[in-house]
Amino acid sequence: MSIKRILAVATFALASAVTSSTFAHAKLQSSDPAAGSAIASAPKQVRLKFNEALEPAFSKIALAAADNKEIPVTAVAVDKEDHSVMTAQLPALPTGAYRIQWSAMTHDSHKMKGEVPFTVK
């Protein structure tokens, strides 16, 4: 293999590594309640932890029941101490299946959304 070819391969590999880390998007790291969990008592709060800081004005949490009916949540906020954590207060929930629906924007303007299903036994 020629030195030019080795340099070309090395340059491409380095550029690929830098590019993939530069364009990595924020991800939900954990949730409380945990995704897919079946819990004995209804949670009073939702806590979502991301791998990047969030923009509070563009980050939301909603809650839906199994019949897709929206259940009001209150005090949705990005934590003042840890900007990668978003919380919301929940009303008293009866037994049933629920989906935490979230949307968020990171400081670098990447938008993301997802759902966290859980069941209250």
Automatic annotation (TrEMBL):
Keyword terms of this UniProt record: Copper, Metal-binding, Periplasm, Signal
Keyword Endoplasmic reticulum: no
Organism superkingdom: Bacteria
Pfam families xref list: CopC
Localization terms from the record: Periplasm
Signal peptide as annotated in the record: 1-26
Family named by the database record: Belongs to the CopC family.
Entry protein name: Copper homeostasis periplasmic binding protein CopC
Lineage, top ranks: Bacteria, Pseudomonadati, Pseudomonadota, Betaproteobacteria, Burkholderiales
Gene transcribed to yield this protein: copC
